[in-house]
Amino acid sequence: MTSEAATAASPAEAAPAPEPIPHGLGVSLPAADARAKTEGTFPYAADLWAEGLLWAAVLRSPHAHARIVSIDTTHAREMPGVRAVVTHEDVPGRPVHGRGPAADRPVFASEVVRHHGEPIAAVAADHPDTARMAAAAVIVEYEVLDPVIDPELAFEAEPLHPDGNLIRHIPLHHGDPAAAGEIVVEGQYRIGRADPAPIGAEAGLAVPRPDGGVELYLASTDPHSDRDTAAACFGLSPDQVKIVVTGVPGATADREDQGFQLPLGLLALRTGCPVKLTATREESFLGHAHRHPTLLRYRHHADAEGRLVKVEAQILLDAGAYADTSPEALAAAVSFACGPYVVPNAFIEGWAVRTNNPPSGHVRGEGAMQVCAAYEAQMDKLAKRLGVDPAELRLRNALATGDVLPTGQTVTCPAPVAELLQAVQEYPLPALPKDSPEEDWLLPGGPEGAGEPGAVRRGVGYGLGMVHMLGAEGTDEVSTATVKIQDGIATVLCAAVESGQGFTTLARQIVQETLGVDEVHVAPVDTDQPPAGPGCRGRHTWVSGGAVERAAKMVRTQLLQPLAHKFGMSHELLQITDGKITSYDGVLSTTVAEELHGKELWATAQCRPHPTEPLDGAGQGDAFVGLAFCAIRAVVDVDIELGSVRVVELAVAQDVGRILNPAQLAARIEAGVTQGVGIALTENLRTPRGLLRHPDLTGYALPTALDAPDIRIVKLVEERDVVAPFGAKAASAVPVVTSPAAIASAVRAATGRPVNRLPIRPQAAVVTGQ
Q: What is the 8-class DSSP label of residue 453?
């Protein structure tokens, strides 16, 4: 051995021990399942298996509206390998009226088909091909009826449902109806039908239980609500139905539709065998809910300085065949119809109606996204009429803490709208593309699709958006969590589903921060745990995260009290930092690991935000717990001859309350902005005569990495909401709401065209006579 080698190997020169990985709140802790997902070993619902497995297939209606004359299952039942065929006659119960989004929807159509793809029958067989062939062998005789596809005609049409065609009407009256401004601008706007298009299609497994019940293994985002609906339809008590949440392959809306999971459970109960169903992409498009297509009419009044005097609007949501979450979406649309602006007088009429179009439901930012596109178009029109810079006009009317919403509710949470807008306004603009062959890819359409560089116009536009967090109008928001710690390892039990929003990572960070332990596990979710509610509107960051924090603090007290008593001091004078317990005076110093040795501690806690109230007959009431705001500046290049649009850059400023995980927060904002690009430019689920056209990822154009613009998060305002745990706000919905409006604003600036429809059609961006 050489002297150099001996020196390198000596203990004195040994490499220092690696520093501990930072953890706790405010740190970019990676997701626990990140490695499994990237390596392809993460267990999704489609990967499930059980001994004696049968395969299911669902027969769906090819018509948007029809009367069912007869259903003949004889041929399907006689096919070799078929174990069961079920129709509406085999459903022992029905959804409980008024409970959950499935309350007005049958498991299978019985007398009338109300939308394309509605389930008619389901089959279980010993092979997936056999199941599909048997489903196709079910003979259904239809009397095809004319569908009601125009929501404006639904008011006078024959009732499509026993509950009628009008699902909800909200008249909002705020201020003086006689108020008028010197400047008046009007507009009519249409928002198309968008699909959440989850990367993984629906899949699940149903396993019968010895007690006559059933266990459903699903990628559910609201397991307790799904359990209650299933139990009612199966004619069972809720404790006889258990839902186990399997790996959720991302969700920006409700993951499961009852036309998928309920037939699955019925087949398992009928056959006494495990039954698996994996939806095709077409079935996925047909089954789950979509974003509400919306018709909006607006009239804005302003004084000569551009300050808003009155806003009048009519909002019509196409709910499709069933109510689902349309009442909640309409409440958001009406309440936020004026946007994050001070409007002393507002008169809004909102309706949600049934049609024979595919059902609409919860999709990220529902209601708020549609009105944002309309009121921001109105602000652009007003700025043009006044000859004022569009950003300056918005600043003159920006909402702030202490202002009053059109619903009469005072904004008590941080509302830094002006600060957000100024941040994106002042951010440097991107450089113009070079007029050279090497830079052709920068042109709209790319090298093969772009026209002449001289036909490209650059536009800059702005969008201000707002969303509410948690439920609204008296929804009882509550979540329960248990934190256990044994042998220095903590476990969190909470029925909050990890759907990609990062809750499991946040729960680990909360426990690490509070208890000073490194190893924290989040238990799988099932309905044996207390309910935590649906995974939408930032609920789990607020409500479930709050429950985890409270439970962890209770365990912390159990840990510190004996130690504090021993030294004759209050446990509140002890602190936990980096795994060490120290007193305020430095007399006591020990480690968390030493104090936990041989101990088992646990606590259960709930988090329930302050109550809200329903909107009254005039659309007034304190309906929302908290609000989140966002400002986006869009820069686009438009080929005014071809109508092609390239989003160059989106500059984002957002109020987030408190940054809990910087990397995760940035990812959520970037994902939301990119989703908004699709809504603005490409995503349009076409339904001529109520029939889904091209229900696949070829016909439905999702934005790809090549479509994603440069996203610059220029400012995150950390002004904590004092009523929220940790002070944090929901992060992912408001950029989805805001970015389509900002992109449309930029296209208007580039072309001078009104752009009153989303997604933006090429013909809307073509400028003639140039």
A: G
